[in-house]
Amino acid sequence: MVDSLGVIADAQARAEETLELAARHLDRSLVDVLGILGFDKRYVCARGSYLYDADGRGYLDFHTGEGFASLGHSHPDVRDVLHAALEAELVDGVQLNYSALAGMLAEELTQRLPGALDAVFFASTGAEAVDSALKFARAATGRPRLLSCDSSFHGVTMGPLSLVGDEFFKEGFGPLLPGCARVPFGDLDRLEAELRAGDVAAFIAEPIQGRMVTLPPPGYLQAAQELCRRHGTLFVLDEVQTGLGRTGHWFALEPWGLEPDFVLVGKALSGGYMPVAAMVTRRAIYQRAVGTLERCYVHQSTFGRNRMSMAAGLATLRVIERDGLVENAARIGALLREGITALAERYELIAEVRGSGLMIGIELGAPSSRAARLSWRLTHMASEGLFPQLIVIPLHRDHGVITMAAGKNDVIKLLPPLTLSEDEARSFLAALEAVLADCQEDSSRNLAVVRDIATATLRRRARSIFR
Predict the structure, then answer these.
(1) Which helix (H) or strand (E) holds 353?
(2) Complete edge-to-edge strand list for the sheet that includes strand 50-53
(3) What pLDDT digit, counting tens, does each position of 220-277 carry?
């Protein structure tokens, strides 16, 4: 492709300024965090399961942008489709016309979901899809209240944030949307107590909670769906992270035979190329919310069904189908969980392994040796989400593996690409074992690193208090 304006050439020429530009004009605190963790690398390209830095070192990506690069990076077939879409000069005034691409993508999504889910609204982000479901549920039921679960995550725009189950994300942003309440994930009695009032428009839940990769108790989701039907509440499944092959199924709802009123899709829908998400619901709900001539334009998304996102979405679904990536996620995910479980039998730091497909959570536990336990206490005093860096930092620094801490908890979350090979999975397991072996020693370099970060954090906190 010809870069007639020199945009890419200029970006490549200024690559060494990347973090400086981000600190000056974007999120300075995130730049600081990247530096503290040693993640302040200058990545120059990404292909498949790897990111490559300016020195040519490859980093195996088990993060994939919280799972959005589900096909790995720079998938050639999706790229070819996007080039073809640009060259075709298709009409793209999304407010005033429909393209065949949008209808085709909606058709292919609904074909992979329970039959009653036949109406689609396209958006740009998962949070926008969540917000759309909240609006449609209120409009369709005439009810004001919305219900979610503790420890849930649905996005950080104002509507979804009102339902997020972690107060940390909400601090400083209130007051939030009125009429929102939460119940413990897995607690049917508390759910029914809220629904019994008859004023709840929607109950929204993740089939597997993404923050700590928490699976539901047996029978919980089926029973929750039945309670919603009994009390006239719409049942919303947020599959923004779990959908499109991530759990070893096209959608996580499949093993439980669920038939919700809404399914929300995002992140992975474009294979890592374009912002695109979808709210899928029943036609009757869609019509009750916005289905009259007078209301046909009251809920819109400026770029929601743009040609590039629709083309990327179609290409992604076809690649997943053609290459058997749902089955690959199930197979390689099982290999990883079995391997990590075997490591847990030898290394006390791993307290629990849980997940489905290529969505895996590794929960760390307190070490038993005196020196390591002191480090554990110090890191928790400094930050609830610091201890997993004991594993995350050396995986990246010493073994070229990118993982992430799951938030303010002791969980490391793995979201590798659905294209992950068996050799790449075994490479990760070998790296993880090497890090665990080091961490088990009282003289561990890695323990020293997190102790230093914790100490510096506590000192900064003390200085800010006494200023």
Answers:
(1) strand 350-356
(2) 43-47, 50-53, 58-61, 401-402
(3) 999 999 999 999 999 999 999 999 999 999 999 999 999 999 999 999 999 999 999 9
Give the helix/strand (H/E) hosting 181.
Answer: strand 180-183
Cα–Cα distances in Å, from 418 out to 32, 87, 171, 269? 31, 29, 35, 13
Q: Would you give the distance in Å from CA 151 to the centre of its chain?
A: 14
Q: What are phi and psi of 203, to 5 degrees?
A: -110, 120
**287-296 in b/e burial notation, b at 16+ Cβ within 10 A?**
eebbeeeeee
CA dist 67 and 352 (Å) reads: 22
Contact 348, 367 (CB under 8 A): yes
CA atoms of 210 and 173, how far apart (whole Å)? 22
Quickly list H helices, 169-252.
188-195, 220-230
Separation of alpha carbons 318 and 315, rounded Å: 5
Please choose, from the candidates 212, 152, 153, 144, the residue with its C-alpha nearest in 3D space to the C-alpha of residue 178.
144
pTM given for the model: 0.94
Tell me which of 160-169, 170-179, 274-283, 454-463 is least confident.
Answer: 454-463
Tens-digit pLDDT profile for residues 375-388: 778 888 878 888 89
